[in-house]
Design goal:
114 residues, 9-stranded parallel sheet, 1 helix, globular
């Protein structure tokens, strides 16, 4: 599947396709599968990356890059795990105030009616 635009969910999601845009997963987990190719900004609670991502991830709990992951962008979370063999090019921010501010800013800009 190929999605261009914005995806918002309150349930766990596993993405095995292509996404160009924004993904927001509230109080649930997002898994980016090995075959997935995303060019997106992601906001969520827990994010596991197994495929390719160009963009940013802000997670309120944890970001995990597995061995098959290839990420180009920024990561912001209280906990970041980067497995041996994964590829990462970007910055990591683990400051709780920054993470909270980024999540609040994203939520405010994506409220219905804006």
């Amino acid at each position: 599947i190929s999605i261009s635009g914005e995806v918002v969910s309150g349930e766990d999601i596993t993405d095995e396709g292509r996404v160009n845009g924004h993904l927001m997963v509230r109080d649930a987990a997002l898994t980016i599968g090995e075959q997935a190719q995303l060019h997106a900004d992601i906001r969520g609670t827990r994010v596991v990356v197994r495929g390719q991502l160009k963009g940013s991830i802000v997670a309120s709990e944890r970001i995990e890059l597995e061995a098959s992951a290839s990420v180009e962008g920024s990561l912001s979370a209280n906990r970041v795990v980067i497995a041996d063999g994964s590829r990462f090019n970007g910055g990591i921010d683990m400051d709780q105030r920054t993470i909270a501010a980024r999540l609040a800013q994203f939520k405010a800009s994506h409220e219905p009616g804006r």
